[in-house]
Amino acid sequence: MICDNLTVTAQGRLIFAGRDARELLTRYGSPLYVMDEARIRHNLRLYVDTLREAFGDSAMALYASKACSFREMYRLAAAEGAGVDVVSAGEAYTAYTAGFPMDRVYFHGNNKTDEEIALAMDWGVGTFVVDGAEELAVIDAEAGRRGITQRVMLRITPGIDTHTYEAVATGQVDSKFGSAIETGQAEQLVGQCLGYPHLTLCGFHCHVGSQVFDSDTFLRSSDIMLAFIAAMRHRYGYLAAELDLGGGYGVRYREDDPVIDIPQNIRQVAAHVKAACDRLGLPLPAIRMEPGRSIVADAGMTLYTVGAVKRIPGYKNYVSVDGGMGDNPRYALYQAPYTVVCPEKMHEPADMVCDLVGKCCESGDILQPKVSLPSTLTRGDLVAVLTTGAYNYSMASNYNRNPRLPVVMVSPDGDRVVVRRESLEDLVRNDV
Ligand code: LLP
User: Fold this and answer.
1) Does the N-terminal or the C-terminal CB of the chain have fewer CB atoms within 10 Å?
2) In sequence order, which residues have a C-beta less than 8 Å from that of residue 359 and are 6 or more positions away?
3) To test ligand 1's pocket by mutation, which of 105, 212, 293, 295 has the most ligand atoms within 8 angstroms of CB?
4) Distance of CA 413 to CAs 62, 159, 334, Å?
5) For 84-115, what is each residue's pLDDT tens digit?
6) 121 CA → ligand 1 middle, Å
7) How far apart are CA 214 and CA 393, in angstroms?
């Protein structure tokens, strides 16, 4: 199947990370996110080990925790030797309260509030990835008040337009994020940063986009960033010690999506970066990469129960399940593709084309249009949407006041609930 943690028994039942889908649902309720701990650890290790092998011991993989953020994720990242990227006080607090080593936290975001900056310093966040001039001034003042020197990186926009959907492209000059090289603003920001007494500039960061399959994206962005490092050395006598190339490797949502050999690609980037450093007379910077999606996507699956099958003769068919855009808004937002299967009917012919829809009072509440499922499907049957580990739980909402789903971590040592199901009381907890 699309990921090797999925198998089908001789009776046509779906097994996820060694567990029968129906048994998981019976035990933990419907609908349900399930995640495969072994797969998450494997994916983390793949980056941690490959980066070290390819770039040396100074390299570090940062898990981009926006892809899926709850305490257990930070514990797994810590255990596998990764750092993390956080983008809000909420993610930083989750890491902090999980006991994550905060010196390995990189705090991103194009508009960190004063309060978030102060809180992050309270918690000992190692590095701020600074987006622009306003933020530099606030971080310097806050560090000064505390009598500390704060490590910062600058987010630079390399001016690359990669092939992905618009909502997740960030490398182009007119991006909301970072300071552009092309306009001279990046160079100016470096000068400003070097002038602040309570900041240590440790290097530069870029992130070009997400769900990227172009094998040369990191080659192009590293070329531009290394040339920028050389230019800043020439301009200010400042040599950047770290270079963060961002995240973005694409994952397969469907069988016909391309396969990327990530270790192979990283080794290719390393050879390219080393050659460019030689050419430019630069020492090799400490490299960081920030994968999010490719750490968790194929480690996740969502299980639903069918409530209704509606056939409109001559028009179309709908299968309604007990979740929807509240637990997975990605089709509604990006027309994101997914693979959908029926875990107890894996050997039945998928002879009914239907839209898989949720229970929200909105026609746009579509999990996936035009999927082929068995025509025997009926109320009470199971439906699984595969590869939902990234940007599902983390983007979930309480639209229509539907409680958010729990997350169950399946592991060789036993299953455990890592995020509890929201209750109706949880929904009204902050109401007056
Ligand atoms: N680093 C930075 C600075 C980022 O902005 C992102 C993603 C990443 C790393 C991780 O990228 P990844 O390896 O996950 O592609 N909600 C969208 C994805 C938004 C991505 C935002 N930034 C979706 O569901 O497709």
Assistant:
1) C
2) 307, 320, 321, 322, 323, 324, 365, 400, 402
3) 293
4) 26, 46, 36
5) 999 999 999 999 999 999 999 999 999 999 99
6) 24
7) 27
